[in-house]
Amino acid sequence: MGVHAHQLKQPAAIAQTPAWLVRLFELAAALLVPWVVLLVTVLPSAHRAHHWNVVWAGFDAALAILLVTVAVTAARRSPNLQGAAGAAAALLFVDAWFDVLTSSTRAELIVALVEAVFVEIPFAVLCLRLAHPGASRTARHGRSDRDSDRGRVTNLLSPVFTNRT
Questions:
Q1: What is the CA radius of gyration of the chain?
Q2: What is the pLDDT of residues 37-56, one digit of tens each?
Q3: How many domains is the chain partitioned into structurally?
Q4: Does residue 45 belong to any structural domain of this protein?
Q5: pTM score of the predicted model
Q6: Which of 135, 98, 134 is nearest to 113 (CA)?
Q7: Residue 132: left (phi > 0), alpha (psi -120 to 50), or beta?
Q8: Is residue 145 within 8 Å of 137, Cβ to Cβ?
């Protein structure tokens, strides 16, 4: 006996999403399918980039800024924590993906896999928990604790550190 998604109170921004916006994102996703097929078939498997160092330094700088933003918004119990944590999770997953797939030596691959498994993916999962704090409790208990947890970081993190039964 659980609560269905349509029974939960939705934020005003979600409830007021116009149909054209939904269709726009559906169209964008549909157009990406043939684009991905084209990229897989046309692009070479190896490519030399002239600004490789700038690409990675810029990406890691953006990731560092997002992680600081997560820390600051969590410390301040800011409602912006969810957005910052969601963005950080996305960049952490992308970082793991590209580190593994762009490794050119066996040693680089081993380091990338270790970082992905023990650092980037666990941090990304933690960020996802911070981005949507009520999801796991809703699934386990059939109710939403979102309103009672709003702004209380200790409640956001408690499911991460407690034993699940």
A1: 20
A2: 999 999 988 888 899 999 99
A3: 1
A4: no
A5: 0.71
A6: 98
A7: beta
A8: yes
